[in-house]
Request: fold
Amino acid sequence: MHHCCYSRHYFFEIRKCGVENCEICSPLRSDPEIFNNMHHLPDPVPKLSGGSYKTFEELYGTETTEEFRPSAQKQTKESQGMGFSPSAQYAKNVGTVIQCGECDKWRVLYSKSKLSYEESAKLSRFLDGIQYICGDSFDGLTSEIQQNEFSELFLKVKVNDKLNCQSNMETSYYSCRLFENEICFICGEQCNQEDMLNLSTDNEFYYYCDECSEKVSKKKRGKTFFGSNSRKKQRNI
Ligand SMILES: [Zn+2]
Ligand SMILES: [Zn+2]
Ligand SMILES: [Zn+2]
Reply:
């Protein structure tokens, strides 16, 4: 494994060492010149100016680390925060959730005031074109070209960039009662009616899938509202 394998969160590479008579690798079959110009896939490295990542061409052949991997960076990154506390009403003002490309959890979008039709349409257009991972902020995901178009919208619309893929679902996801409810609070997986666990106190509870309910059953539990029966997942209005 250590000799010729290269393991990263996003990929796993096996590359012969290229040394003649290696006892581990079999002999090269490709052209040695081409082989010697083959490098590891680079890790994501942000531009100094921030906002986006360096191109493959810039990084190929250079030494990179996983330091800047979006989902690894979250815990240490200085997050900007949203400038306000998440609430069910702020979630309702946007009425949209976005799914993390790594952990698959749905994250809630917030705004202190209700979005206009045009703003909602613009937001949908933006969301369709991005790959979101927990901890991202919309400002961070906006490319330079998009700055003009979207910067004003994202003064208003926020996603909580203090979250990471280990974070539970947000309570506002449930309490705004807009989104599909049978989602495990811990892992974000869909819960079947049968393995749903009602841990209610005063009519407030979270859903837990079978697996997670075992983990939390002895721990302290949070609380949220049991939302409506709406099963429709509204990603966009
Ligand atoms: Zn070798
Ligand atoms: Zn995630
Ligand atoms: Zn779960």
